[in-house]
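Our consortium's second objective concerns turning raw sequence data into structural hypotheses that experimental partners can test. To show how far this objective has progressed, the report includes one record in full. It was chosen at random from the queue rather than selected for favorable results. The single chain below, 76 residues long, was entered without modification.
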Amino acid sequence: MKAFFEGIEYLFVKILFWPLDILRAMELDNWWIANIITWIFIIICCAATWYWIKQLQVFKANNDDDQDTTAHSFLS
């Protein structure tokens, strides 16, 4: 059973987290490249927020949104 958990440890530490170890070691040389994953997630979140707001504007322009407080049965 110990070998099974050591195998899981090897998989995550030596294989799956290897690219993150490279980015961590790179932090002292170039902060921007070391944080590229963070920047990618920030860009994705900004794009998703922009898309969501645009869709809200489309529904509001078509009067498809129901802003009545009785829209849900538990609020009436």
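The partners drew two points from this record. The chain has one domain: 2-64. The two ends are 57 Å apart (CA to CA). Both points have been shared with the crystallography group to help prioritize constructs.
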